[in-house]
Specification:
Elements (H helix, E strand, L loop, with lengths): L3 E3 L9 H23 L8 H12 L4 H10 L3 H22 L2 H7 L11 H16 L6 H26 L4 E4 L9 H4 L4 E2 L2 E5 L2 H10 L3 H12 L3 H21 L5 H6 L7 H34 L13 H12 L4 H5 L4 H16 L1 E5 L11 E7 L5 E8 L11 E6 L2 E3 L2 E3 L2 E5 L15 H18 L20 H7 L5 H7 L12 H9 L5 H18 L7 H13 L27 H19 L4 H12 L7 H9 L6 H6 L6
Helix pairs in contact: 1-2, 1-4, 1-5, 3-4, 4-7, 7-11, 9-10, 13-21, 16-19, 17-18, 18-23, 21-22, 24-25
The chain binds zinc ion.
C-alpha cells in the first residue's frame, strides 16, 4: 500500500517584514501546546504524551526553512530577518529542553521503556537523554544558569557564522602577480586600475593558491583567507569555549568533550585522542618524505640548495599541483575540461538513481529562491512511493554561504497516517559559467559533489516516523559516513565516463589513460593532507578538554607541532573555522576521519558485489539510510556488512598498512 504523503511548499519570496511575526506566532503556538503537555497529571502520562511532545518539536514549518534563508537568500533583508529568527528559534529550543515541568512529565514513561516498540523506545530514550543533557534535570539555580549559557552560546554561534557568510573582502593582484593562474579564473573579475579584485570564494581562492608562480601572491591570498572572521570571531570562540566548559561542569562532567562525546559512537575523548595520535604516528613519516620531495622541487625551481629551502604553508598546494602535473602528468586544468557542470550534475544524478534504485523528477515549475536553483522530487523505484524533495543551488553569489553543505529544511515525520516528506538542499560554490565557457569542475569538485549528494540522500531516504530521527538525529560521528562512502564512485572509470564529456566535444570522455594517472596520484601527499585533518581534530579536542586563553595562539602552535608546518603569527584560522562553533561539530571535528573509517569499510561490500549494483544499493538504503537516527550506527553497519566493522579498508585508503 502506498503511503499518503504531504509535500510542503516554502514561500521563498516571503516579505521579510512578515517573517519575524510568523516565527513569533509559531513559537507562541508551540509554547502553548507545550504548556498543556506540561500540565498532564503525572498518572495520565502515556506514550501519546511523548508523541504529542515530539509532534510539537517536529512540526518545524515555517521555522525550518527560515533558518536556511539566512544562507542563500538574495535579499539582504530576508537574510537579516532570518538571522534574528535563528537566534530566537535556537533560544526557544534551549528553553524547551531546559524545562523541568516537561521533563518531569516525560520521565514518567521511563519505567515502561522496555515494553515499547523499538522506534518509540529509542524516541523515549533520546528524549529523556536530551532533557538531561540540556539541563532540565538540574536544580533550579543551575538549570537557570545552564539555560542562560545556552542562549549566550546561541548568539555567539549565529554571529560567528553570519560574519563569515557576509565577507566580501577582495585582494587586488596585477596580471603579473597572477602568473600561472589560468586566466578564466580572474579575467571576468572586477578591476581596480590594472589590478584584479580577487575574492576569497573557492573558485578563485584555490586556483590562486594552487597555481600562482609568485610565492608572495599565494602567501597573501592564504593569509587574508586565514584571517577571516577577525579578532571578533576569535573572541566569540573563546567566550563559547569558556561557556561550554561551565555547562559541562554543571552537568557533572570534567570537560565539554567528555560531555558531548559520551553520547556519540566514540564514547570518550580519550578514544578520539588515541585514534588521532595513532594516525598522527602513522602519517608523520609519510608527511616527512613528502616534504622532502616538495623541497627538492622548490630548490630546483628557485635554484637554491636543499638545505636553504623550506616548504611554507602556502607552498604545499602549489608544489602538490606541480608534482601531479610533472610526475603523474595530471593537470587539473586539463581534467576540468572534461567536467562541465551540467554533464557532471546529470551524471551524478544518474549514478545515484541507479545505485539506490530511485527516480528523480525535476519540477517543471520549480518553487525556488534564485533562478540558478533546481528542484527535484524523489521516487522509490521499488514501490513508486514519493520519498522527498531536494534542491540544488550550485554557484556562488554575494551573501550566499561560501562552502559546500547540505541543509535539511524539513524532516520526515508521520502524522495521522500521512507522511510529511523531507525537504533538503545542497549548496555549493562551483565556478560560474561565462559567455563562452560553461562552468567546469575540477575532479575534487566532482568528488565533493558525490559527497554532498550523499548527505541529500541520507535525508531523502529516511523512513523513520519521527522528525527526531532526521539527519540532525544521526550521531554526529556517523553523519559523514554515507557521504564519504559515495566519494569512492568519483574514482571509477565506468562512473567517470558517464559524467565526463569534453566541453568542446561532449563525446570525448575523460581518457582512461588520464584517469589511471589520476588514480596513481590519489595518494600523493596523503600524509601531509591527512595530518592537517588530524591537526584540526586534535586542536578541537584540546579546545574542549583544556583551558584555552588565546584560541589563535593555540591553533597556530598545535597546527605547527602536529603537521610540521608553521603558521604565521598574523593568522587566526580559529576565527574562520565554522566547525568549532557549529553544534554538530564542536568536540566533533574528529567525525570526518572517524566516519571515513566506517565509510571505507561499508564500501567494501559494493567493491565485492559491484558498485553499480542496485540490489546492494537498495539494501544499503534500507539498512543504513532509512533508519536515520533511530538505530545504533554500529548495529546498522554490522547488519549491512554481516560482520563487525574493522579499519583495514580505511588504512588502505590512506596508503597505510592495515592493523
Ligand atoms: Zn559532509
Amino acid at each position: 500500500m502506498t503511503e499518503q504523503v504531504v509535500i510542503r511548499k516554502p514561500d521563498w519570496a516571503i516579505d521579510p517584514a512578515k517573517m519575524q511575526s510568523m516565527a513569533d506566532e509559531d513559537i507562541d503556538k508551540k509554547r502553548k501546546k507545550l504548556d498543556e503537555i506540561a500540565k498532564t497529571p503525572l498518572e495520565k502520562v502515556s506514550l501519546q504524551t511523548l508523541k504529542d511532545f515530539e509532534e510539537v518539536l517536529g512540526a518545524d514549518d515555517p521555522l525550518g526553512y527560515f533558518l536556511f534563508i539566512k544562507h542563500v537568500s538574495t535579499n539582504k533583508e530576508q537574510r537579516d530577518a532570518a538571522d534574528e529568527i535563528e537566534k530566537d528559534v535556537r533560544k526557544f529550543f534551549n528553553e524547551i529542553w531546559g524545562r523541568k515541568d516537561l521533563y518531569d512529565v516525560i520521565v514518567q514513561l521511563e519505567p515502561e521503556m522496555e515494553s515499547l516498540e523499538p522506534e518509540e523506545r529509542t524516541l523515549l530514550d533520546k528524549t529523556i537523554k536530551e532533557f538531561r543533557h540540556r539541563g532540565a534535570a538540574l536544580d533550579d539555580d543551575k538549570r537557570k544558569e545552564f539555560l542562560e549559557i545556552a542562549n549566550n552560546i546561541t548568539v555567539l554561534q549565529s554571529d560567528f557564522g553570519r560574519v563569515l557568510n557576509e565577507i566580501t573582502t577582495t585582494i587586488p593582484f596585477t596580471i603579473e602577480e597572477l602568473e600561472g593562474v589560468p586566466p578564466p579564473v580572474y579575467e571576468n573579475l572586477e578591476k581596480e586600475g590594472n589590478r584584479y579584485l580577487c575574492p576569497l570564494d573557492y573558485p578563485v581562492y584555490f586556483p590562486v593558491v594552487n597555481y600562482a608562480k609568485n610565492p608572495e601572491t599565494r602567501k597573501k591570498m592564504m593569509i587574508v583567507s586565514y584571517q577571516k572572521g577577525g579578532k571578533e570571531n576569535s573572541e566569540r570562540l573563546s567566550d563559547a569555549l569558556a561557556l561550554r566548559e561551565r555547562q559541562s561542569k554543571l552537568l557533572g562532567h570534567s570537560n565539554f568533550a567528555e560531555y558531548v562525546i559520551s553520547r556519540k559512537m566514540a564514547k570518550t575523548p580519550q578514544r578520539v585522542i588515541d585514534f588521532m595520535n595513532d594516525l598522527k604516528e602513522r602519517l608523520t613519516p609519510l608527511s616527512e618524505k613528502e616534504n622532502l620531495r616538495m623541497r627538492e622541487l622548490k630548490a630546483r625551481e628557485l635554484n637554491t640548495t636543499l638545505e636553504d629551502t623550506k616548504i611554507e604553508l602556502w607552498d604545499i598546494f602549489y608544489y602538490h599541483e606541480m608534482l601531479k602535473k610533472g610526475k603523474y602528468a595530471v593537470d587539473q586544468n586539463e581534467v576540468k575540461e572534461y567536467f562541465p557542470a551540467s554533464q557532471v550534475v546529470e551524471g551524478v544524478l544518474e549514478v545515484y538513481q541507479t545505485v539506490l534504485n530511485l527516480e528523480f523528477v525535476e519540477a517543471e515549475k520549480p518553487n525556488i529562491w534564485h533562478e540558478d536553483v533546481r528542484e527535484f522530487k524523489v521516487i522509490d523505484k521499488t514501490n513508486g512511493q514519493t520519498l522527498g524533495v531536494f534542491y540544488l543551488d550550485l554557484y556562488p553569489r554575494d551573501g550566499k554561504f561560501k562552502h559546500y553543505a547540505v541543509w535539511g529544511l524539513m524532516d520526515r515525520r508521520v502524522k495521522d497516517g500521512k507522511a510529511y516528506l523531507p525537504m533538503c538542499a545542497m549548496v555549493s560554490n562551483y565556478e560560474k559559467p561565462t559567455k563562452d565557457k560553461p562552468s567546469l569542475l575540477t575532479h575534487d569538485d566532482v568528488e565533493t559533489f558525490f559527497h554532498e549528494f550523499g548527505h541529500l540522500m541520507h535525508i531523502i531516504c529516511n523512513r523513520a516516523n519521527y522528525a527526531r530521527f532526521g539527519l540532525d538525529g544521526v550521531l554526529p560521528d556517523f553523519i559523514e559516513t554515507p557521504s564519504m562512502m559515495f566519494e569512492n564512485w568519483a574514482w571509477k572509470e565506468e562512473v567517470l565516463s558517464k559524467l565526463s564529456g569534453h566541453y568542446k566535444d561532449p563525446k570525448q570522455k575523460l581518457p582512461s589513460e588520464l584517469l589511471k594517472r589520476m588514480i596513481d596520484a590519489k595518494l600523493l601527499n596523503v600524509g601531509t593532507l591527512q595530518l592537517r585533518q588530524v591537526a584540526y581534530s586534535l586542536i578541537d579536542m584540546f579546545y574542549h578538554t583544556e583551558r584555552v586563553d588565546d584560541t589563535s595562539e593555540v591553533f597556530r602552535r598545535l597546527f605547527g607541532e602536529i603537521t610540521g608546518y608553521e603558521m604565521l603569527d598574523e593568522v587566526r584560522m580559529d576565527a574562520g573555522f565554522g566547525h568549532f562553533m557549529n553544534t554538530g561539530y564542536t568536540a566533533g571535528y574528529y567525525s570526518y576521519l572517524w566516519s571515513k573509517a566506517y565509510a571505507e569499510d561499508v564500501f567494501t561490500k559494493f567493491e565485492e558485489n559491484g558498485f553499480m549494483n542496485s540490489k546492494i544499493g537498495t539494501e544499503y538504503r534500507q539498512k543504513i539510510l532509512a533508519p536515520g537516527g533511530s538505530l545504533d550506527p554500529d548495529k546498522m553497519v554490522k547488519s549491512f556488512l554481516g560482520r563487525e566493522m574493522n579499519n583495514d579498508a580505511f588504512m588502505k585508503s590512506l596508503g597505510l598498512d592495515g592493523k
